[in-house]
Amino acid sequence: STVFEFLLAMSLAWRYAEATDNPRWKGLTWGMLSSSISSICALSFHLFYNQIPWILTAQAFFTFLGNATLGIAAYRIAVSNGWTASELDPRRAWAKLSGGVQEEGKEEPSFDMSRVSTKQASELTSGPLLLAEVIFLTLAFSYGTKYGELAFGSEIFQSPESSTAAACVILVQVSLVVYAIYSRSADLQRGELPPLAFSGALVREVPKEPEKEEPNFFSWLLPK
């Protein structure tokens, strides 16, 4: 269930980027991809009865990479919202909390609700349906993982020589996640790569009119 919950969080970050007109939140979705691959490697390692050691090495690498990309994505979001390195000075925060420093003028709110574009209730996935989707997918994939090996041959999953099969299992899952993001990314479909990690962190894109789409059962898995 944690894998689907993580995919849901990636989808919500993408939708939040469009709702607030801050594309840096889409970078958070891409930053979470490496961590998602790490979780896929962990599950695949257990699927093959812990007999393929290189999967653990891959999991460790993508965990490290995911922590780095998440840090970069968080930095870009913070900078795009006006954060500066001076806020790392604890003396400034302590002086403000203790009343030693009086801020000039009225403090700006940290979040402007006027920037959020709301949607009609009919365009959103209802809470009960979302919960039902997560439960259904968790049970379906748990059952498939436990008994699916019987359909393909248990010797494949129980042999330490099944590195090729393990690589295919990992690549298929990763490809599905990448395609889900790519299918919702208009710039990538036009052949335009996302900006570099620290470039244009303060620049906002011109808001675009969102395309209305019919909700479907698995819509929360795909970033909109």
Written overview of the protein:
With 224 residues, this protein is mainly α. Helix content is 59%, strand content 0%. It is built from eight helices and no strands. Helix 1 runs antiparallel to helix 2. The chain is elongated and about 65 Å long. About 3% of the residues have low confidence.
Look at the helices and sheets and give the structural class.
mainly alpha
Poorly predicted spans: 201-207
* End-to-end gap: 21 Å
Total beta-strand segments: 0
Outline, from the CA principal axes?
elongated
Largest sheet entry? none
Put simply, the count of helices is: 8
Mean pLDDT: 77
Tell me the radius of gyration.
21 Å
Q: Can you give the helix content as a percent range?
A: 55-70%
- The percentage of residues in β strands lies in under 5%
Elements, N to C (H/E): HHHHHHHH
